[in-house]
Amino acid sequence: MKFAYAVIVSAVLASTLQADILYTDGTPDYLHGDELGFRIEADSFSFSAASTITHVMFQGLSLNPPANYTGSVYWFIYSNASGIPGTTLASGFATPPAVDIHDFATYSAFQFDFDIAAFPVTAGTTYWLGLHNGPTSPFLPGSQAVSWAAATGGIDPLPSQSYDLSSASPVWGQAANPDHYFQLSGISGVPEPSTWLMVSVGLALATFLKRKK
Q1: Domain ranges of the chain
Q2: DSSP classification of residue 144
Q3: Residue 120 and residue 74 in contact, taking contact as beta carbons nearer than 8 Å
Q4: 18-190 maps to which CATH number?
């Protein structure tokens, strides 16, 4: 019965705490982008409420088909250090497929979706999302990587930053485009009243079944 109780509670929590889109930076600009092969490109973000990020989506520009895409995306979440990326708080890599969403004369726009290890964010705190296509060392030459699509109407006030891996002494500097298009999904840290209602109903049902037993 303890097992059944746990299953019911877990099912209720899973059904109510589904990942939602928490942050969208502008709309994609398919005319411009910043190269991810020999750079780490970073864009800032912040949330008004405590949340947990579990998924990243971004759009990139590349030749069609993207034969130059290595199939790996390295991601980083940095603290904010006076308007530029600071300490690395989390990192990892994913192998998302390049999903063709728009074809142009000589290139195409692709969408990349991948999960990350759950990362909790504090309300009102600025963070940076960093992306890189392929290994950080040895890095990919510019002709062999995807560019992170720029964004129009971006909501973060800080200009995007770029970290040139081909430099002997790389430092963060302002990227060619002030914003990049991306979405962050996850779970809000403050459940809605309906969530608590569903959890209460599930607990009541589990208790009823236990007493009936």
Answers
A1: 1-17+191-213, 18-190
A2: G
A3: no
A4: 2.60.120
Distance CA 10, CA 56 (A): 25
- Look up residue 101 and give its amino acid: I
The length of the chain, given as a count of residues: 213
Whether the pTM exceeds 0.70: the reply is yes
Q: Measured between alpha carbons, how far is residue 33 from residues 92, 101, 181, 191 in Å?
A: 23, 16, 9, 36
> pLDDT tier at 107 (50, 70, 90 boundaries)?
confident
N-term to C-term CA, the chain: 8
Q: What is the pLDDT of residue 62?
A: 85
Lowest mean per-residue pLDDT among 17-26, 47-56, 108-117, 192-201:
192-201
Contact partners, residue 181, CB within 8 Å, separation at least 6? 25, 26, 27, 28, 29, 58, 59, 148, 149, 150, 151
Q: C-alpha distances in angstroms, 124 versus 47, 82, 92, 183? A: 6, 15, 24, 18
